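ok so i was messing around last nite and threw this chain in just to see what happens. nothing serious, just curious
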Amino acid sequence: MIARNAGRALFVATILCGSFLLFLVQPMIARMALPRLGGAPAVWNSAMLVYQALLLGGYAYAHWLGRVRPRTQAAIHVAVLALAALWLPIGLAATDPPADASPAFWVPWLLGLSIGPLFFAVSAQAPLIQRWFAVASGGRDPYALYAASNLGSFAGLIAYPLIVEPTMALHAQSLLWSGGYVVLAALVIACATLLPAAAKAEHVVYTSAPAARRRIVHWIALALVPSGLMLATSTYLTTDIVAMPLLWVLPLGIYLLSFSIAFAQNRAAADLITRIAPVTILLFGGVMIGGYQEVPYFNAGIALVLLFMAATALHTALYRIRPEPDRLTGFYLAMSFGGVLGGIFAGLIAPVVFDWTYEFPLLILAAGVLVPQVFLTRAVRDSWFTSRTIAFATVIFAIALLFVLRAFGPADLFGDQHMGLSFVIIAVVGVATIGARLPYVVLLTSTLILFGGYRALALSYEGDARTRSYFGVYTIRGDARVRELDHGTTVHGIQLKGSERRERTPTTYYAPRSGVGRAMLRLSAQARVGVVGLGTGTLACYARPGQQWRFYEIDPAVVRIARDSGHFTYLARCLPQPAIRLGDARLRLAQEAPASLDMLALDAFSSDAVPMHLMTREAFATYARVLAPDGVLMVHISNRFLDLEPVVDAAARGGGWQARRLDYRPSLLDRGRPSASLWIALTRDPAVMAKLTRGDPDWEPLRARDGFTGWTDDYSTILPLLKGF
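result:
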């Protein structure tokens, strides 16, 4: 038997170390991949699917090891750790995607090739060390160590954006992780020395009955929904609420924290959350589907609270039906399999099958179906037991009344103006249904439809009004006088409809008095122009005969919308035969001949998310190479959440660029649907900058920020740039 305190501390330290490394590496490798893969939310979801698949492999390997004696398990696992160490120091494989590579397949392949063996070896730690603890301690309950495992995972994940990324370059991060791996291997060897030599293989010493097939399916379902909801929350937040890269990490962190609470020895917090989770799912689920944008940070907080409550309640239900410790690895294998299925649904199936983030309300509904429920009051419980038909009829009547109010009541009954009234109605009916599962599910379904599901369905029924690709959700709105393209919550182009003159008028961020508009109007008749980010093709209407234009666009769906759909006619009216380079703009520009452009306009944001790899010092060096010595670089940095001016200023100072900013605020006299925009003009030729800004006082010097470190491929952080903090 191991010494009670010292032995337990060693096993806990080993699990904490392994879990910390396992989830520190996830955002770290995603950050390393940015220069090659871009910053779309789906890239993170693809990465998460790879991690879940490797985790399943690690759990299956740990389960298989139960067939041999513990000391033999230790020898095999130490050998696996040594073999995986050949991939140290950890980093991204030195290979670039083909120009026509599908990101949905390229991203998993690259990540698997880069970290697959290391992630596989470390992912087996949690179930394996727990089983060794049970053997070495004489059968003590190991499930509390799973809470420690997820606490370590949560710490590793949150430490990256808050501590590691802001303070360390990628090379140092790689060395830090590699050193941690060596420490982990030493801890595993130390744990192995505590295993009794006479212990038998698990398949010989099973003392509990195997789980029934129905129970295993229940395990898988309870693991599937939180996993899928975590990815769906990431996509929904960055598509319809706040398109901010930091938020990709937070849902995963909350998901891990829910495990720590659900599997903790102290059951008070888990039991309390599980009791109130049905109320949270009912009320907050409707708010999220409504997609209200006036207070985006508040809505993001609600979405994360919803995920936390639902995941904790479902994982608590999973804990309550756990098997005996001798069946531990099979239980974790089923959990991991459910997690992979959730990832496949939210990360692979949903983007192909749905034209909007329908996986989010569907998984909220699934959480409502599976979440444990108890009646909130004795009177409600008695009414359902004594007068079930009358109670159910009352709930149906209340739901019907809600639909009538939706159809014939105030237009904003379920919007911001009447949100309090809507909440009261839903809450009153909800109190009567929680504990009675079928009426509760009916009410939850109705709430999701009333608060916004009907709007999403209406757009889907319009045919090509909405398109979803690997890079986001595009929605086309408008009427006979104006047509608008939205990418998530950000307007990516507006075209006036009607006469040819109206349809050729540049609008929004590209209006004639915007920074890019003024620069375009000063171009020579023989200028060679490149535009990163096609959008609706608005900038094409600055093209003149004799000029050479080419666009760089990563998403084929955007090309179809701008060129082939017929909804927007900028290209057809102004540049009928555009040269369009498909693929990541930085990679495609690196393939262009030096000094082959006179102007390059950089406008390649995914909603308000920023592709960091297009804003680094190395990226600006690529732009400098492809531009003529007197060429001009225009960078669009309008953003609701990030102040990107210090990033461009640092790149300009480091690369020898002259730089000026133009913060355009349209007046009531400006026509053509202009939007406020912030453009920065850069050139390495002072004479060109003087010519561009001569007689125009709106061009101003950039505002430097003391102490700000510019972005490079090896270092970047968004924390100092967040607005409103």
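not much to say yet. Confidence is low (pLDDT under 50) at residues 241-245.
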